Amino acid sequence: MSELPSPYHEGKVLLIDKPLHWTSFQVVNKVRWAIRQKYGIKKIKVGHAGTLDPLASGLLILCTGKMTKEIDRFQGQEKEYTGTLLLGATTPSYDLESEVDCEYPTGHITPEALQNIIPQFTGDIEQYPPIFSAVHIDGKRAYDLARQGEQPEMPARQVHISDLEINGDQFPEVSFRVRCSKGTYIRSLAHDIGKALDSGAHLTELRRTAIGDFHVDNAITVEGFLSELEKEG
Please, what is the average pLDDT of the chain? Predict the structure, then answer.
């Protein structure tokens, strides 16, 4: 198979709308494989600028070829998410990856209480990553330790939340929109909101809608990319 000239070596930025249940690496691998097949390329650099959990959908920036040098710049930009959390119950993973482990009352939570907690979650805040996360603890991933039944001590980190909107119209399910810095765990935010309300909470849905000036409305599905790739050349 002879190699064809490829614009992907010079470098492209691809905006992909990651589907639910796919890992970010699966998207990267699928796109890399498709480009190699299309152009008969043995090697092509493809990387993503910020992981999305399998249970999250939305904007994933992929860089190819020479543009992979820009990944750190994209990763450092502010991100926007929308989603929902469920009040009254927690899970070890802070989302739907694990089963409910504790239930809490919610009858005392008023619409005013939901709005009153917003200031404590905006600006520079201290946050603890979930134990089910990729944070390294003594050379191991925290989620590997957690799945072995261990309770690793998670180091706190400072993150910045520039904007947070909360809507409790479907109480005890609460929808939200948040703009935040690199390194912010939305699962931890959901968990901490539950604690701030003297209850519990876990994330039930998450979608990344923007990274810097890039918006998911301008993204393409994996299937859409594969279809467009076939038309090239």
Answer: 91
Confidence bin at 140 (pLDDT 50/70/90): low
The pLDDT score that the predictor gives to residue 110 is: 97
User: Strand ranges (DSSP E) for 73-212?
Assistant: 79-87, 89-90, 102-103, 123-127, 136-137, 140-141, 157-167, 173-180, 201-211
Catalytic residues, by residue number, are 53
Tokens of 208: 């990344």
Domain 7-76+214-231: which CATH number of 3.30.2350.10, 3.40.50.12780, 3.40.50.1110, 2.40.40.20? 3.30.2350.10
What are the tens digits of pLDDT across the range 181-208?
Answer: 999 999 999 999 999 999 999 999 999 9
79-211: CATH class: alpha beta
Is pLDDT of 94 > 50? Answer: yes
